[in-house]
Amino acid sequence: MSVAIDSKGNMFAGYSTPSGGEDSSCGNADYATSTDGAKWTFCSSGKPGADIFTPFSQTRNVIAAPDNSVYYLWNEGRSEKFGPGLLLWHRP
Fold this sequence. Notes:
about 0% helix; mainly beta; elongated; 4-stranded antiparallel sheet
């Protein structure tokens, strides 16, 4: 799991699939956002098209950029669409 906080105090947590399951209500790769650290909204990176991601990636890193956009990077070994390697997702 990785957590980043932007300059406005918004929080972003990237994590592996809950409980080790293959799917969650949001799909993979999972993340959560919060404005206060108490209430969290769970989401997905919105993977384009049908694909299966590794539920337990060894790498989950989130970074809050100076412009408050968020980058989510993970090591993917199972994607049929993108193949193995590092995947980077960006939320403006």
